Amino acid sequence: MKTPDAYDLLKVPTRSPKDCRKEPTLRETEKIRQELVELQERLYAENRRSVLVVLQGMDASGKDGLIRKVFSGLNPQGVTVHAFKEPTDEELAHDFLWRVHAQMPRHGMIQVFNRSHYEDVLVTRVNGIITDKEAKRRFAHINAFEQLLQDAGTTVLKFYLHVSEEEQRKRLAERINDPAKQWKYEAGDEDKAKQWPQYREVYEDVFKHCSPESCPWQLVPSDQNWYKAYFVAQALRDALRKLDPQFPPSKHERPS
Amino acid sequence: MKTPDAYDLLKVPTRSPKDCRKEPTLRETEKIRQELVELQERLYAENRRSVLVVLQGMDASGKDGLIRKVFSGLNPQGVTVHAFKEPTDEELAHDFLWRVHAQMPRHGMIQVFNRSHYEDVLVTRVNGIITDKEAKRRFAHINAFEQLLQDAGTTVLKFYLHVSEEEQRKRLAERINDPAKQWKYEAGDEDKAKQWPQYREVYEDVFKHCSPESCPWQLVPSDQNWYKAYFVAQALRDALRKLDPQFPPSKHERPS
């Protein structure tokens, strides 16, 4: 059970626990990744269940980097990533879950969402495109939708990459000066930093309303990239261990 | 409000009311179709809402004929029909609503479902592929799904084409002898006729559990094709009148 503060973003840590050191954690993450390779192969071979990994976080929380760090090395035949952009005209002419449902993993697959259906109760709300009442209605639809997925054998893992207001401001500033990061800079990035408190509120509302026991939000301390990767890799590994996917029996008799 | 017998298929009529005569009804249906042409054009031009028409019925209840009679003459640019067949391997590797959601009408469109997501709580149940418990779970998912559609501006109309056990048997027999109907004959059609009572039970359960006030099942007396077409055309016309779609204002100033 979650404590009342579990989803208070001003209280949830953005940094690793005190006793957690970088070098041993990096080594541990590497070990976990080796195990993930094996578990993913079994999931694919079994071809009976699937995993959906939802990644959310404010701008510059490091979603792209996390995907690179955790999922590189897995067999891309069994792992796909879908990045949700602003909806197209065609997508806007349907209900908000239409384009999301289309991207669901088939049996055997791990699907990673870089942003997700939650944008439709986050950015839309901060920008006043939907009312609070509409947001509540969407929470119910999201919960029903995720239950549908789970009933069909999809494990749903939801991670919020939690960066502090200061860390976000620092990272957005780097986009202006670092040649390797400039391509990510967008006009308005400075304004986004100012919206941290507004996003905090709508995120907290999401965590409270869309965390059923079967697929609660996991808040990932993300000011340090090495800890963030470790946290998510471990959670994914644990979920896959729990599924315990098995190679199916051979369809052919063994030659004697 | 529905009376307790409203969904009792042994009591719901399969034929037109006594005072309803064929010739005037055919003329009336033709008038309704003219109105549908105009209403559909407005819906399309308005480009803000949509309509989903779900057609279910036992084998030989006349779904294909109904579609031909009611929807021919409408502009096919604004009306599409999707016939659901047995799910493919790819579809079976997802939740049961995945392939259905993909076929949702975009704004401005009328989408007709020849069979639908309800097959997943009908044929699957009669054939013992899903348990009663799973069926109940699916009812809840279907209701949540249809509410999602309605919240996004889709009017959902659900018609059950109700033929009597005798009429069904007669029609299935015709498939063997009538050259224009032989292509519809399938091995096992005789067995299907024997399943009428089993289908009756699972259909009644669907009507009871999936008839919220916003989109209840409408049971269409369907032993006479002319009455069936009139009933559905009228219900569709009434729904479109209620939507009262409007041509959008011109984007250009009128030349003076």
From TrEMBL, chains A, B:
Database matches in InterPro entries: P-loop_NTPase, Polyphosphate_phosphotransfera, PPK2-rel_1, PPK2-related
- Pinpoint the Polyphosphate kinase-2-related domain residues: 23-245
Annotated Pfam families: PPK2
Q: Which Gene Ontology terms cover its molecular function?
A: kinase activity
Which keywords label this protein? Kinase, Transferase
Q: Please, which domain of life does this record's source organism belong to?
A: Bacteria
* Entry-linked Gene3D superfamilies: P-loop containing nucleotide triphosphate hydrolases (3.40.50.300)
Family that this chain belongs to: Belongs to the polyphosphate kinase 2 (PPK2) family. Class I subfamily.
Q: What is this protein called?
A: Polyphosphate kinase
Q: Which organism is it from?
A: Hymenobacter cavernae
